[in-house]
Amino acid sequence: GVQLAPKEKLEIPVLFMPAEMKIYKAVVVIHVMRENGESWPYKVTAGSNTDLTRNVSVAESGETQGIVWIYPIHGTPEAPQQKSVVIRCQARQRLEQRVELLLIGVMPGAPALPDAGNSSEVDTDESSNTPEVTDGSSATLEFLYELQYQSDEIRSQLESLVGMQLVEKEWDRESRIVTLIFNVVFAPSKPMRNEATVVVQCTAGGLWKFPFVFIATEPEVDDVINIEAVGLNKESIVGFKLTSQTR
């Protein structure tokens, strides 16, 4: 019953308030008809685009009575942001640390989407994996995880220094908590402080984000150079080599 003038815009608010960590689907249907009830003349011929007939409502006379727009909506619940995980290592050293990430509110037995492996919200590139979490029953949950960076500059600084691998997973059906245990490797070459986010998505629905802070402290002193004077107003020279870590 909404009347629109020519060239007028209509805003349709969509509110999403998920109660559980699962996939929600809905469809927004917009049906437009003339105010005077008249139809638009439209005849289907051999050269007509048959796809157009799916977007119109046809009267008994065969004329177009209304135009229909259909917008599918897929709602993915996102858990509240977690506390930051701090990974600290001295520059020019290598740190290997186990990190536990708790996924709260996982829905047991929720149906997974057939195309979940091609999710647009979590890129499944080389750094991503699809671990399966099972509890010995027929229900199986799959997860996608990826380390995302705030900018390309941070990606260029961290990507070659950080590695993540899933080593263990547990699922408590009563509390609906999935624990993913990662082995994180951090091998910084110079002092830095950068942030990244581990994004985990369940194919049955739900998105979790875990901020990580990577801190590289000052490296150890390489050597102490002693210069012994040969006399007053005379130069003393000591030579030493420097090796570049990059090209």
TrEMBL record:
Q: Report any one BP term from Gene Ontology.
A: sperm axoneme assembly
Residues of the region (Disordered) are 112-136
InterPro entries under this entry?
Ig_CFAP47
Please tell me one Gene Ontology term that the record gives under cellular component. cilium
Q: Where is the composition biased (Polar residues)?
A: 117-136
Q: Name one Pfam family in it.
A: Ig_CFAP47
Which residue numbers delimit the CFAP47-like immunoglobulin-like domain?
78-217
Would you tell me the protein name for this molecule? Answer: CFA47 protein
State the encoding gene: Cfap47_1
